[in-house]
Model the fold of this input.
Amino acid sequence: MTSILLSIFSIFAGIFLMSSESLGQAQAYKSSKIQLFQVNYSGEKNKSFADGGIGFGLEIQSDFGRSWGRVYGKTRGTLASGRQSFLDGASQVNCNYTFYQGQFELGLVLMPIPGREKGMNVFVSGAGTLGYNWLSLTSSTTLSQLKPSDSASSLGYVTGVGVEWTLGKALGKKHMLTGEINYRVDRTNLAGQSEFNLTGLSIHFGYGW
Done:
């Protein structure tokens, strides 16, 4: 329920800020980013990927707003694979797994110090997420209740902190190096669990323009 409420709040906050932007264009800001990231999962054994592999992915972001705050949207894809134990009924079974996630994120970026045209800018962010998840399991033993292939949607939220280093302009466009650390809270109905935990800490690096 907390994830749903925070997701709804972030979406409506984003709509509000987008509406306020339409009232004036002074100091308007727009940018696009492409980032690579790594996810380190956490959670309870057998009910998360905490004992399995690290996730990797690619995301594309667009944002607009003003020097003190922006609305942003992200689309990302994540892949994780490894070997760990899952609950098959009351028993633990070791499985190789492959996990895919497609996710959309909508939220706000706030600048504690108003953003500059050149140099380093620091920001904090908060957002709601909507995702769809696919899990494939293979085991040397026969699975009784676990599905070898499963999929489900998920709602969650993200908080983060990051930096943008604007290098300058060339051919009328600004160029940036970007980095951020996010804490994602996300749960879904997978691996026989009504709240399989996809929560984790993610580290992002990329390029913006």
Observations:
- The longest helix spans residues 2-21.
